[in-house]
Design brief:
By secondary structure, the protein is mainly alpha-helical. It has four helices and no strands. The model has no long low-confidence stretch (mean pLDDT 92).
Length: 74
Amino acid sequence: MTMDSRIREQTRRAAVSAIRRGRLTAAEVADLAGTSRQLVQYWCTVARVDPVRARRRYLAAEWTEAMAGYVKRA
């Protein structure tokens, strides 16, 4: 495996991981990785990751946490 292919593989893994956790959108990952959104979407499809669902789960958890902190202060 060449250095370029290792870097591409690491980039793919990092991209899918960030999207799976819902912290970044496919467009944000593509911008950070210097690649196309379509390629990132393809990586997600191969990894069976739904970026929209992952983002919704992440945002719902963040909202729940924020509201819990607000309710405690009230």
